[in-house]
Amino acid sequence: MQRPTVDDLKRAAETGDARAQYALAAALSDAGRREEADIWLKRAAAGGDAEAHYTLATRLLQTRAGIGEARELLRKSASGGSTAAARALAVVTAEGFDEAPDWPSATAIVLQAARDGDPAAMRDLAGLLMLRHVEDADGDALLAEAASRDAAAAAALVRRAAEGRGDSSIAGPALERLAAVNYPRVQALRAKLATAARATRPGAAIDHARIAAKLRELAPALGGLGSSGTETRPSRRIAREALSRSPETYAVRAVVPPEIAEYVMAVAALRLAPSMTFDPATGVPRQDEYRTSLTATLGPADQDLTLVAVSRLLADVAGADHARGEFLSVLRYAPGQEYRPHFDWIPEAGRDFASCGQRVRTALLYLNDEYDGGETHFLASGLKFKGAPGDVLVFANVTEEGAPDMSSRHAGLPVRAGVKWLASKWFREREYVF
């Protein structure tokens, strides 16, 4: 079937058809005609098109000042049938931003989207359930249902099978679907699956009532989430492995299970772009030969509740206030790529230093282990650290007096073979206002 031309779409749009107006806006945007596209996008939104409301909302979600308007657009879009808008609304509801965080309402929104058949919502619920208890059978059922239509669900499902959990009989087809969409970790997953013990589980039907009961156990602060499935707050069960006093550095092992690490990589994979550094003269991010990795920084429009949960766990492990955390960034280092010696503290000229303050603490979540080299190296102490999937490294960027700590200079050493994946989260002195 021949696709309609821009002229065809314009004729339909001029009749007042909001769907056609949105399609025209998309076509004009693809053609690089952004100003015209914006005009038709706003007309489509005024005409009540749900996808136009969602698209405008994702733009507004890029700044804290736009959250209120974005929330209203997401509500309109979700009521018009957009499950993507419903999932974004859940993130805004869970985080609160300019309102009180409401975790129960957020999970209820995603649960309804899953009931409506949205595979990304099913995957999100599975992630939450597996963080609650890694062996959760309802998580398996949700992943199995979502995997044929959602790449991140397929990746998590295959990784569960590689870890000896879930049903390995359905992992092979899921892996081939990942290969068909060029998921960058197909070969690593194939190798892990080939050496995994074969396991089968009877296929369980999705029981939304039972899932809802489990979700009600999750408090807004996400106490009790962890790979062990224990019901105590993470801060009460954390076993810190002290590594250095200057800078203060410690590791916490197995904060999330490997399938959640895979989940994070899969969500980030399509969003990777060249990494940036702070220009010390201007405080503005820029590309630099010092940092040769790819990075995906996951803002509100890119997240789901599982990623919010992971961020909250990192804050708890770091002993930091979640509201002071910058967005989670996922980094990918190919052979030869590195991050040369640098500090994580930022110059006072930084564009948001006055409002958010210094980066006082860093938490690094290690996501995979199929690489050589790539250690995190602290030059002053000589410490070199390479975590297993799910391990977290935490270090201070400032002294006890709050001054930049010169001993915190560190590097991501070059990867010699394989590909390294890592998630990073920085914590500020004050609430992070983006």
Number of H/I helices? 17
CATH class of the largest domain: Mainly Beta
Mean pLDDT across the residues is 91
- Give the class from helix and strand content and strand pairing: alpha+beta
Shape: globular
Question: End-to-end span in angstroms?
Answer: 44 Å
CATH topology name of the largest domain, in short, is: Jelly Rolls
Look at the structure and name the CATH superfamily of the largest domain: q2cbj1_9rhob like domain
CATH architecture of the largest domain: Sandwich
Strand order of the largest sheet: 1-2-13-9-16-7-6-3
Integer tally of domains:
3
What is the beta-strand fraction? 15-25%
Radius of gyration (CA) equals 22 Å
Largest sheet: 8 strands, antiparallel
Explain the overall architecture.
- This protein has 434 residues and is α+β, with helices and mostly antiparallel strands.
- The chain folds into 3 domains: 6-95, Tetratricopeptide repeat domain (Serine Threonine Protein Phosphatase 5, Tetratricopeptide repeat), CATH 1.25.40.10; 119-215; 234-428, Jelly Rolls, CATH 2.60.120.
- The chain contains 17 helices and 16 strands.
- The strands form 4 sheets. It has an 8-stranded antiparallel beta sheet with strand order 1-2-13-9-16-7-6-3, with helices on one face. Strands 8-14-11-12 form a 4-stranded antiparallel beta sheet, with no helix packed on it. A two-stranded antiparallel ribbon has the order 4-5.
- Strand 4 and strand 5 (285-286) form a beta hairpin.
- Helix 4 (50-60) runs antiparallel to helix 5 (67-79), helix 10 crosses helix 11 and helix 11 (171-180) runs antiparallel to helix 12 (186-194).
